[in-house]
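WARN retry 2 of 3 for item q-0093 after timeout on previous attempt; input resubmitted unchanged.
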Amino acid sequence: MSRSVRIVLSVAISVVFLAVAVRKVDWAEAGVALTSAHYVYVLPMLVVSVWSLYIRAQRWRVLLRPVGTPAMRTLVAATNIGFMANMVLPLRMGEVIRPVLLSRKEKEPLGGILATIVLERIFDMFTILFLFGVVASTVSVSEAVRQWGYRLFGLAMVVGGLVGFIRWREAQALQLVEVVTRRLPDRVGYAIDQFFRGFIQALEILDSPRTFLQLLAWSLFLWLVIASTYGFGVLAFDLPVPLLVGSVAIMAVIAIAVSAPSAPGYIGAFQLGCTLSLAIFQVSESRAIAYSIVLHVTQFAATIGAGLYSLAGEGLTLRQLEQVSERHDTAA
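OK item q-0093 returned
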């Protein structure tokens, strides 16, 4: 599928998501919610959003141990620029730009670094589902929320089990990949094979219980910090949402929603995640949309600000980032 077609599809998905999110919105009610919000909470939202990028860089450094030992300054710059690119470039190309920048700066192999991005996403998925499952199972919530908690907790266990199988049954996992790649064109099959081997190399991190626990601790810390951003939003709009379970539930649903293909900046997906998560707590679509606007703009501003700061520090331009994304997208 060509790059242009994928961009059109991602934008179309965003439009559909946004239409679903706003279909029952009373814009007068949303306006009242926006004018009566406590904007004093925007400052901690901004601070926490930038802080979460630094925490991501710290966790990434642990993930990269089997590959190399990059400087923390380089990791922070690549993380800030990569997440900014996700906000302004199509097809979530920041996930490619981030490892490419690190590989060029530190002269480390790109394949191994790309594999750590996949492993990072697996830890993210496991942690998000785990946190939502635990909170929904232990805190006083509706039966519907509790059942979703059980389901997501089960899914987290499946994800963890699959990663464990790949690591500790490496030979069988490689055989399965070979069966698949034989049926593909040589270029595609070779790329998948090299990526998977790099992924297995990155999984060597799991051989050290101490390192695995460090990664798990960093992941839990990261997503609890991110959840606090949504908690500040709950306080800003005086929403009838329990602060702990509400923050984690909103965080989990939005994280799942924005993982779907969408336009730059997760437009549409973010709004849908807000309305779906707040509907669990009987918050109207109108107030949820007002909430989403403030949270989205705040996170966008924090991410763009951090990215531009690092971009200037690295002597790069947005046009150069776009060229990197186009080149590696074409190569893929």
